[in-house]
Specification:
- By secondary structure, this protein is an alpha+beta fold.
- Helix content is 20%, strand content 25%.
- It has three helices and four strands.
- The chain has helices at 56-71, 78-82, 118-121; strands spanning 2-11, 51-53, 87-93, 97-106.
- A four-stranded antiparallel β-sheet has the order 2-1-4-3, with helices on one face.
- A hairpin with a 3-residue loop joins strand 3 and strand 4 (97-106).
- The longest helix is centred in the middle third of the chain and has 16 residues, at 56-71.
- The radius of gyration is 14 Å and the shape is globular.
- The two termini are 19 Å apart.
């Protein structure tokens, strides 16, 4: 079991159109927008992965490091990560921006075990 880290920071106004956020959309693989279903991050190319961790404490530290500059100190429960759960945070920032930080469990994902690891599937 390991986790992949993903990050999205952009205009919150772009959260409204959901076509490219759906796994079946032709532009989904190349779109930087967060998918509607968390496990669908695993269907995106490996280039979207910001980091991979076997150690839940290291994954939680990365999560907090991504959030800290935007909303102050934040702690992530590494026990949830150790249990194979996804950990997600999303915040509206000034200037109508949205910050999404995602740790997605992989190999296997608890709800989508049929999804392969993006690091090994290209």
């Amino acid at each position: 079991m390991h986790h992949h880290g993903y990050l999205w920071l952009g205009s919150g106004l772009h959260q409204v159109p959901d076509g490219v956020r759906r796994a079946g959309h032709p532009d989904f693989p190349s779109s930087s927008y967060p998918p509607l279903e968390l496990a669908h991050w695993l269907l995106k190319p490996a280039s979207f992965v910001r980091g991979t961790w076997d150690d839940p404490k290291e994954a939680a530290a990365w999560f907090a490091e991504q959030v800290r500059p935007h909303v102050g100190a934040f702690g992530c429960d590494h026990d949830a990560l150790a249990g194979g759960q996804d950990v997600v945070g999303g915040w509206w920032l000034s200037g109508q921006r949205y910050l999404g930080v995602y740790l997605i469990a992989c190999s296997p994902h608890r709800f989508r075990p049929e999804y392969g690891c993006p690091a090994t599937t290209g």
